[in-house]
């Protein structure tokens, strides 16, 4: 105990110094002034007194509005608005990235059905959110994603070969075959490896943002960076969401939380998931700058993320919450048959009526930047390229044998090293018994 | 957490009839005598899947005890991520079969609260991997409140869901929690293997006045087992804390639980065929309380002990049983006891690695042959 006490005393002192100097802290102490018309309790410092007793009924309050730039016909809603500030070439890249994700989804979903991989998660209907938001990030920004953000990886330069190598767990998979399919990760642009456990990435994002904040305090010359954290509205029911937002708010972390509100958490419709005004209303409760955007409108998502990024870096850093509304056209995952809990016609309706890809296509066609011929050849080209990488990845060798032992700890334990030696001895003693051709570098890989 | 709970891996198995990948053998460990399906025989035995047995147990207890209700993610409308709760919503209505938001801490906490208030909730986790989000509720609240409240707050709650190895779902969906829950005073823990186990133990768990964790296994759900006439009746209950000798033998005692029981039986048959050795296979059924007597009696008979489980090697169910064998049966052991467990590695995804990280029938046979110096 005696060794713990001084330490625990020291920690608060450091923390205090990093926020407010001691003297300033005292001067801001809260006290009730006589005759004031408002309360100054420590927990609510500017609340007016009232003699009217009334409970706030959230249903009496207007819903938070949804920001959009394009209507569902791909036409700018506000004709007088300032230009987007994005080149046509860049918009075409976004469009092709959306097409790539959506075509890859179809191919990989089928491949899973054929038993060529155990699992896959598609993002149909939500390509606009992931690609539009990622387009507003810099490569130095840090991303924590959930598992329906293939578009974020695509936009940040993850190649088809990277995707396929992960999905088929081959030697080029930077997770060495250890992770479930779609658990992508990337060192640079920094994108933390997907974790199956829901919502745990939200507090992690706060922590990573806090680290970035300290880093820029210590090295003011480094480029300012933010953390972007993605999750679905179902994940926002987890305790980690609330803990993560509150800690980001109280520590003023430069993090943008982006909630993909797609209407379903597996089979649970939002009506049964929560009763408030979406996820956006919660950001306000935590004292966080919040916006709701139309997730099918890639321009709105892009602009919101760009503005949120700037906001997150202002005032020494602060969190921002974006709630992007969309509709999950796809099944939850390959393990799900969503027609068990929603009408097929509802899905078809959404697919046809409003969809981020079709909306951007209409815009591009209105601008004369795209047409049916370009669409056909782009789709054919993307499809051929995906299938080529698919086939190559499936045939590629497995990771080196040593990868079966490495990675549990930072350094291979003595015990594991002993086992590797023993395995090597056996493999070398009985070479005709073990076919190592499927593994990268064969016996040398151990 | 949640999850991909997201990942609903079992439903994938359901759809894997289209699967060409041999990666997901549903009944890899089915003992050979079960490979042909019978429906009803002269002695009234019927083949029932573990899934149906659990469903029957839930329906019977919901029917007979108005204090019970089941809640969890997707248990109602979707009939359960693994279809264990199929038809229960239609039969018992939304007040007793409740879909919850994705918040383990929330719905598990709610269930514990309802139990402390006198109801008998059944709390389904999509898998016990996700119960980690609610482990404070299970251990600090459910398991300890009866003791801490001086007995005035009983906690008749059942936690259930798949546990342990699955197929192709990697580190965060394949963990075996038998040892975690088995180490907590105040909790009871059962791990059914067959359909009879599943029905009898789940019903016992629901009726037991204490918090009970029912650790099912995803790969067993679709597997059919013969169910005796007695077990088909609605008064069938198995005692918690009693193991079952699934296969008598005289040369080696194999103690196992959950899916590994099936693997051990297949291994025992192979040991008999290859070496003429008679292995006795004990199905633990209950992790806590543990049937030490049955294990030690068997050990006294055979003189050799092997434990087979899918958890991590250290501080596990096998470690405990080996320690007990040393405490209570040391003089009867004619060879050092052996454990066959999962590997000391977060479960990898790639098929070859995954197979190597869990006990296989060949591993059990090989280790048994070594133990017996065959």
What's this model, at a glance?
Chain B: It catalyses: N(6)-[(R)-lipoyl]-L-lysyl-[protein] + pyruvate + H(+) = N(6)-[(R)-S(8)-acetyldihydrolipoyl]-L-lysyl-[protein] + CO2. The complex is a heterodimer of chains A (446) and B (374). Chain A is an alpha/beta fold.
> Count of DSSP E strands of chain B?
14
How would you sum up the global shape of chain B? globular
Number of E strands of chain A: 10
Task: Give a quick account of the main beta sheet of chain A: strands, pairing sense, barrel closure.
Answer: 6 strands, parallel
Strand order of the largest sheet of chain A: 4-3-5-6-10-9
User: For the residues shown, what is the average pLDDT of chain B?
Assistant: 90
* Helix run count of chain B: 14
On the 0 to 100 scale, the average pLDDT of chain A is 90
List low-pLDDT spans of chain A: 1-25
Helix and strand run of chain B = HEHEHEHEHHEHEHEEHEEHEEHEHEHH
Estimate the helix proportion of chain B, in percent. Answer: 25-40%
Order of helices and strands of chain A: HHEEHHEHHEHEHEEEHHEHEHHHH
Query: Any guess at the CATH architecture of the largest domain in chain B?
Result: 3-Layer(aba) Sandwich
Largest sheet descriptor of chain B: 7 strands, mixed
Cα Rg of chain B: 20 Å
Low-confidence stretches of chain B: 1-38
Beta-strand content bin of chain B: 15-25%
CATH class of the largest domain in chain A: Alpha Beta
Q: What is the terminal separation of chain A in angstroms? A: 46 Å
EC number (chain B): 1.2.4.1
Cofactor (chain B): thiamine diphosphate
Organism (chain B): Aspergillus cavernicola
Catalytic activity (chain B): N(6)-[(R)-lipoyl]-L-lysyl-[protein] + pyruvate + H(+) = N(6)-[(R)-S(8)-acetyldihydrolipoyl]-L-lysyl-[protein] + CO2
């Amino acid at each position: 105990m005696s060794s713990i006490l001084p330490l625990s005393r020291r920690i608060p002192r450091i923390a205090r110094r990093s926020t407010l100097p001691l003297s300033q802290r005292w001067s801001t102490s809260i006290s009730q002034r006589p005759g004031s018309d408002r309360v100054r309790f420590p927990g609510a410092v500017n609340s007016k007194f009232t003699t009217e007793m009334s409970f706030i009924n959230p249903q009496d309050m207007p819903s938070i509005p949804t920001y959009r730039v394009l209507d569902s016909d791909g036409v700018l809603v506000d004709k007088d608005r300032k230009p987007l500030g994005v080149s046509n070439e860049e918009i075409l890249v976004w469009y092709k990235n959306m097409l790539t994700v959506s075509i890859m989804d179809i191919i990989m979903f089928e491949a899973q059905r054929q038993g060529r991989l155990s699992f896959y998660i598609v993002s149909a209907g939500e390509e606009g959110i992931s690609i539009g938001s990622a387009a507003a990030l810099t490569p130095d920004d840090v991303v924590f994603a959930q598992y329906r953000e293939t578009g974020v990886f695509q936009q940040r330069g993850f190649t088809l070969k990277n995707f396929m190598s992960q999905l088929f767990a081959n030697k080029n998979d930077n997770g060495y075959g250890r992770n479930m399919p779609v658990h992508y990760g990337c060192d640079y642009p920094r994108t933390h490896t997907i974790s199956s456990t829901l919502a745990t990435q939200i507090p992690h994002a706060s922590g990573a943002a806090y680290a970035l904040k300290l880093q820029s305090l210590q090295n003011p010359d480094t480029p300012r960076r933010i953390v972007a954290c993605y999750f679905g509205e179902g994940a926002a029911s987890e305790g980690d969401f609330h803990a993560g937002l509150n800690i980001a708010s109280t520590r003023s972390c430069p993090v943008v939380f982006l909630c993909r509100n797609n209407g379903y958490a597996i089979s649970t419709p939002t009506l049964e998931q929560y009763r408030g005004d979406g996820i956006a209303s919660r950001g306000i409760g935590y004292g966080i700058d919040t916006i709701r955007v139309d997730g099918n409108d890639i321009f709105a998502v892009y602009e919101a993320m760009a503005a949120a990024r700037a906001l997150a870096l202002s005032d020494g850093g602060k969190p921002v919450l974006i709630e992007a509304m969309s509709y999950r056209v796809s099944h939850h995952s390959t393990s799900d048959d969503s027609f068990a809990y929603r009408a097929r016609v509802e899905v078809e309706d959404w697919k046809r009526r409003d969809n981020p890809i079709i909306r951007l296509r209409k815009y591009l066609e209105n601008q004369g930047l795209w047409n049916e011929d370009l669409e056909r050849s782009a789709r054919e080209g993307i499809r051929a390229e995906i299938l080529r990488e698919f086939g190559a990845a499936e045939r590629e060798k497995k990771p080196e044998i040593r990868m079966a032992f490495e990675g549990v700890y930072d350094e291979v334990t003595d015990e594991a090293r002993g086992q590797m030696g023993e395995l090597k001895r056996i493999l070398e003693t009985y070479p005709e018994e073990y076919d190592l051709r499927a593994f990268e570098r064969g016996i040398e890989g151990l | 957490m949640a999850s991909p709970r997201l990942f609903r891996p079992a439903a994938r198995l359901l759809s894997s009839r289209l699967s060409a990948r041999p990666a997901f053998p549903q009944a890899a460990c089915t003992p050979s005598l079960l490979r042909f399906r019978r429906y009803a025989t002269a002695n009234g035995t019927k083949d029932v899947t573990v899934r149906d047995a659990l469903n029957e147990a839930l329906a019977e207890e919901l029917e007979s005890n108005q204090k019970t209700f089941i809640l969890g993610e997707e248990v109602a409308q979707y009939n359960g991520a693994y279809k264990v709760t199929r038809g229960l919503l239609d039969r018992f209505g939304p007040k007793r079969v409740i879909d919850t938001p994705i918040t383990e801490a929330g719905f598990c906490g709610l269930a514990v609260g309802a139990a402390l208030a006198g109801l008998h909730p059944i709390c389904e986790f999509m898998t016990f991997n996700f119960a980690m989000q609610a482990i404070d509720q299970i251990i600090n609240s459910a398991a300890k409140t009866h003791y801490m409240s001086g007995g005035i707050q009983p906690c008749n709650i059942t936690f259930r869901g798949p546990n342990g190895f699955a197929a192709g779902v990697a580190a965060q969906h394949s963990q075996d929690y038998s040892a975690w829950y088995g180490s907590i005073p105040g909790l009871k823990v059962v791990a059914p293997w067959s359909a009879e186990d599943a029905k009898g133990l789940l019903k016992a768990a629901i009726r037991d006045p204490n918090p009970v964790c029912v650790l099912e296994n995803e790969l067993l759900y679709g597997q059919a087992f013969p169910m005796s006439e007695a077990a088909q009746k609605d008064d069938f209950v198995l005692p918690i804390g009693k193991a079952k000798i699934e296969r008598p033998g005289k040369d080696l005692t194999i103690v196992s639980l959950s899916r590994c029981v099936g693997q051990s039986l297949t291994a025992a048959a192979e040991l008999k065929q290859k070496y003429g050795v008679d292995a006795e296979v004990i199905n633990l059924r209950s992790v806590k309380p543990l049937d030490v007597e049955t294990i030690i009696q068997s050990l006294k008979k055979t003189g050799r002990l092997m434990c087979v489980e899918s958890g991590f090697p250290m501080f596990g169910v096998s470690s405990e049983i080996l320690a007990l064998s040393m405490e209570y049966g040391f003089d009867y052991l004619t060879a050092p006891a052996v454990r066959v467990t999962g590997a000391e590695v977060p479960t990898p995804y790639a098929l070859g690695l995954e197979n190597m990280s869990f006990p296989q029938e060949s591993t059990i046979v090989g280790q048994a042959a070594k133990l017996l110096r065959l």
